[in-house]
């Protein structure tokens, strides 16, 4: 083994030590951004287009929704959007067909787009209290005094 063989051997050993970089997956991040005019829309679009890894930025002024697609992290996109001094939050709405109880007090939102409700954890469910129970008994068919109340 000569000098060339030794260099090749060392080169192979050093290249095997390097770990391959973990490739980021393409993601879609939806944000709710308070925008009033087309100037606001342009400003938000320009700032988010400058984030490293962004492939496309779609802005819906009517719904106040910004969709960012690319090799990005949601936290970085959120931070970049907040740098525009606009009120920004992750998109809180989901289609109401995906929620078990779409009209629970935490989920229902008048400002939500059509056919959407707020995304709430599964722990938020309808709970029946004793007060609710008494109202259902008052107007029950089994209650003989129900007619007198009406």
From TrEMBL:
Pfam families cross-referenced by the UniProt entry: HMA
InterPro entries: HMA_dom, HMA_dom_sf
An annotated Gene Ontology molecular function: metal ion binding
Top-rank taxon: Eukaryota
Keyword Protease part of the UniProt annotation: no
CDD domains: HMA
Gene3D superfamilies noted in UniProt: 3.30.70.100
SUPFAM superfamilies in alphabetical order: HMA, heavy metal-associated domain
Keyword vocabulary terms for this entry: Metal-binding
Domain HMA intervals: 26-89
Full protein name: HMA domain-containing protein
